[in-house]
Each structure stands twice: as C-alpha cells, then as structure tokens.
Write the structure tokens for this entry.
Amino acid sequence: MDPDLVLLLNGIVSGLLLGGLYAAAAAGLSVSFGMLDVVNIAHPAFMVLGAMLVALLWGATGIDPLVLSILLTPAFWALGAVIYVAYHHFFERRGDEAIQGLAFFFGVLFIIEIGLVLTLGPEQHFADASYANTTLHFGEIDLPLRMLVPTLVSLLAIGGLALFLRRTFMGRAIAAVAQDREALRLLAINPVRVKRLAFGISIAFAALAGGALVVVQPVEATSGHVFIGRVFAIVIMGGLSSLGGCVLAALAFGVVENVTATFYGPSWSPAVAFGCLLLVLAVRPQGLFGRAA
C-alpha cells in the first residue's frame, strides 16, 4: 500500500479517536451552553479536576480509570447543582448572566486550577489502564486501545444522555427550558429546578471526560486550557443544542486536526481546524445541525 495512503488512513482513524475525546469534553458543554444558555468557561477545568481525582484514586485502588470516573459522576453532579444555585442566586435571577456570569465562571476556573496546584502540585498525573499499551492491527491500520476504549465509553454515555433528553419528560423539559420558561411554568415545572438538574448533568459529564483524558495522556492543573477554544468551537459548529451535531462536529474536528498534523505539522492543525469552523459558520451561521432562528 502506498505510504502516503497509509499515513492518511491512520491519520483519519486516529483523528476519529481524538474526536471521541473531544466529544466527551464537549457533550457536557452542549447541555450547559447550548441548552441552558449558561456560558460555563470553566467546563474544561472541571474535566481536569475529574482527571486528577481519577489519577489519585487509581493510584490508591488500582481500579480502572473509566470505572472511577463513572463512580465520581454523582459527586460532580452535586457539585454542579451547588454551583448553579450560586450562579442563579447572584447573577441569573437578576439578569446579570452575560458579563458578570461569565466573570463568575472565570473565577471558578482559576479557583480550580490554583486549588489543584496548591494541593497536588504542578507536576503531571496519570492513570495507566490495563489495556493502555495494547494496539489492535487491521492490516496497515492501528487502533490503540488507550484511545479506542475511552472513545467507545464516551459515545455510549452520550448516547444514553441523548435517549434521556428525547424519551423522558424531564429530558424534554431540559431541551425546552432555555427557549420558553413561561411555558414550563404553565405546566407546573420549576425552570430553576430543571436547569439545576441539567447543569449538574453537564458537570457530571466533565468527570467522565476527565476519566477519558487521563487514560489518553498525563494531565496537570492547567491542561484544560488547550480544550477551552476547542470545546466551544465544537458545540457551536455542531449547532449549540444538538447533541448529535456536537458528536459529529467533534469527530470532524479531530480528523481535520490529526490529518493536518500528520502531513503539515502540529503547528498548523489548530489553524486549519478553526478555519473550518469559520467556513461552516459563514455557510450555516446556526451550525451544522442547528435550527435557523
């Protein structure tokens, strides 16, 4: 097989696996930013917090990192619910969610990062899963389980979330809460309660994404910085409240980045990927799967 074709095929496969990690990171933000209209700039910091806790628990117990991340989701849901209550009390109910609310989440981001540095230090942490050094070979195509297993677990979790949003009454309420609060009140549903539940779910997904991240690569307190622009770009490209669009945009983003890095060097990959975002928004301002206003 032609060497360039082999590079291209492996670049696409690796990009899809990288996109699975991006999808895990962006799914929770798709709920908070896309459905609730809460600009949680600290979402990647919660992901790193989850990754660091998973690494610590893995070192103490030896349990698989992805299992540990699932076990952490109730605690992260409760943390998200508490943070939303504070956000709503001090900003949202007074109509100050735009600038002041954004500043609030910037503050949360820095508190998490500084807290991690002070408690765990600036060094990197990792969790070495039992399958991390195994690679499946299909001819010239390589599938490292270090990337494949977190991607599959993330996609299954996102599929479960999509079913919850589509098939349950509370899930449909979450999808509707940012569009028409008064209609929910007419149905005797408290919009604040719905948003508290949904924001907790978004932070719980950050814990899952952290478990996937720490399997793929070592993490440090500031590792979330590289994801801030990417996850927002993916959510916007996919169409804000479209969870399926978020996943497809994440996979496309990963493929574009990885193929560009393979052939032209890693310094070009973010520029090309964000260039594709601008092109998509020029053609479809509502994103690939968003609805026109």
About this structure: Strands lie at 135-138, 141-144. The chain has one domain: 3-283. The domain at 3-283 is CATH 1.10.3470 (ABC transporter involved in vitamin B12 uptake, BtuC). The chain has a mean pLDDT of 88.
